[in-house]
């Protein structure tokens, strides 16, 4: 195996529980399994440690200003989004380790998406609707939930994530669920074991 034949995976975590979070445990298993197989080069982006702030009107406005006309403050704001987009673009696979908070995604992950879903950079508006500009990427969602929501109307998280990824052109998305983690020890261990097996199978397909 050579590095040139190795795909690059960006693993994005957003659990406020740090190493105690179950979504983080899924991410760690993904990394360990990939290391054993040797087919993925991993970069990890911990959004909680990064302490990415919520998007503001000033930051949004800075994107609309021509580069040569930006103030130093605007250039700094634009650089934050540009760096996150560039990090995404240099990887082949995006892995989102996502806990379920009040039926939605963590605000830290939303703040990340707010910087990478950028008109003119990662998608554009056309007469036929939005067109994604991020090509040739795959995504894996590692979803950890205390209850069981997959396939029900209460799972508003998964469609939201797939829609945001689709907006920028990432339509090939694999889902791994670890559900019912708050429903007792036996159920929890079985769910995590099945999720780990699913992760291994996903990595074999990448």
UniProtKB/TrEMBL annotation:
Keyword Flavoprotein: yes
Cofactor binding, note field: Binds 1 FMN per subunit.
Residues where FMN binds: 15
Keyword field: Flavoprotein, FMN, NAD, Oxidoreductase
Co-factor(s): FMN
Sequence ranges assigned to domain Flavodoxin-like fold in this UniProt record: 7-201
EC number: 1.6.5.-, 1.7.1.17
Top EC class for this record: oxidoreductase
Catalytic activity: N,N-dimethyl-1,4-phenylenediamine + anthranilate + 2 NAD(+) = 2-(4-dimethylaminophenyl)diazenylbenzoate + 2 NADH + 2 H(+); 2 a quinone + NADH + H(+) = 2 a 1,4-benzosemiquinone + NAD(+)
Entry-linked Pfam families: Flavodoxin_2
InterPro entries cross-referenced by the UniProt entry: Flavodoxin_fold (IPR003680), Flavoprotein-like_sf (IPR029039), FMN-dep_NADH:Q_OxRdtase_AzoR1 (IPR050104), NADH:quinone_OxRdtase_FMN_depd (IPR023048)
Record's subunit section: Homodimer.
Protein purpose: Quinone reductase that provides resistance to thiol-specific stress caused by electrophilic quinones. Also exhibits azoreductase activity. Catalyzes the reductive cleavage of the azo bond in aromatic azo compounds to the corresponding amines.
Family classification: Belongs to the azoreductase type 1 family.
Official protein name in the record: FMN dependent NADH:quinone oxidoreductase
């Amino acid at each position: 195996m050579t590095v040139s034949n190795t795909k690059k995976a960006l693993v994005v975590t957003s659990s406020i529980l740090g190493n105690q979070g179950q979504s983080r445990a899924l991410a760690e298993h993904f990394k360990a399994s990939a290391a054993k197989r040797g087919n993925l080069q991993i970069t990890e982006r911990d959004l909680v440690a990064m302490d990415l702030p919520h998007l503001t009107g000033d930051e949004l406005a800075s994107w609309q200003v021509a580069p040569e006309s930006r103030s130093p403050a605007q250039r700094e704001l634009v650089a934050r989004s540009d760096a996150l987009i560039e990090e995404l673009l240099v990887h082949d696979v995006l892995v989102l380790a996502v806990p379920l908070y009040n039926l939605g995604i963590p605000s830290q992950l939303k703040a990340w998406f707010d910087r990478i879903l950028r008109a003119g950079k990662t998608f554009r508006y056309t007469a036929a609707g939005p067109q994604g500009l991020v090509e040739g990427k795959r995504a894996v969602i590692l979803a950890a939930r205390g209850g069981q929501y997959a396939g029900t109307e209460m799972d508003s998280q998964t469609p939201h994530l797939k829609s945001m990824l689709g907006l920028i052109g990432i339509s090939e998305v694999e889902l791994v669920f670890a559900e019912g983690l708050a429903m007792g020890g036996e159920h929890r261990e079985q769910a995590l074991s099945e999720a780990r097996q699913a992760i291994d199978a996903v990595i074999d397909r990448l």
